[in-house]
User: What shape does this take?
Amino acid sequence: ILGDEAGGADLGKRLLKAYIKGLMPSALEYDFEESYHLDYAQIVRRVYREPEPGKFLGSFAPFILGHGSHPFIETLVADAFNDFININLMQYDWQHNIVSFTGSIAAVFKDTLLKCMDAAGMKTGTIIKGPVDALVPYHTRRRERQERSSAELMDKAVALLMERTGLEDREEAARLLLKYGSVAKAAENFK
Assistant: This one.
């Protein structure tokens, strides 16, 4: 819970504080009550007396994400991003680095995050929902490069085998290469 600025538990804590203190706009408060049916005593018990309070606080992230366009939620999230920037990023050499983000909150509230980063004078790199969002395109590009390299290598090997053997049929040369595994062996076994 400590150091979770702008994470699910932090946003949940901010939301619950606003709810308990009567700072939440009435329409949002109504939606919150309809969604969770919690009273003050239940909230205190879950946060202070039961295990995994961070998990409990983080369980409100879907509500926050679902009401992301509400000005109150936008402000709540912007305040959390600003705290994250001031507490966690400002201590580093941010003037010479680009900061990237991974997580559903950063991805959903990308515009808010970009505004906060810009206001702090920080350069923002990539913002993705999860690591897999970047890994899939990376591995797809990598495989395409490997396939191109393999195809180019095969074309060169076919051309070399055709030159060495006098073969004129590219398909036959490719078949021999696949059968024997190298230009030298294919040429040696060519009849």
Observations:
- The first helix runs from residue 8 to 20.
- The CA atoms of residues 23 and 166 lie 86 Å apart.
- The beta strands are 98-102, 123-128.
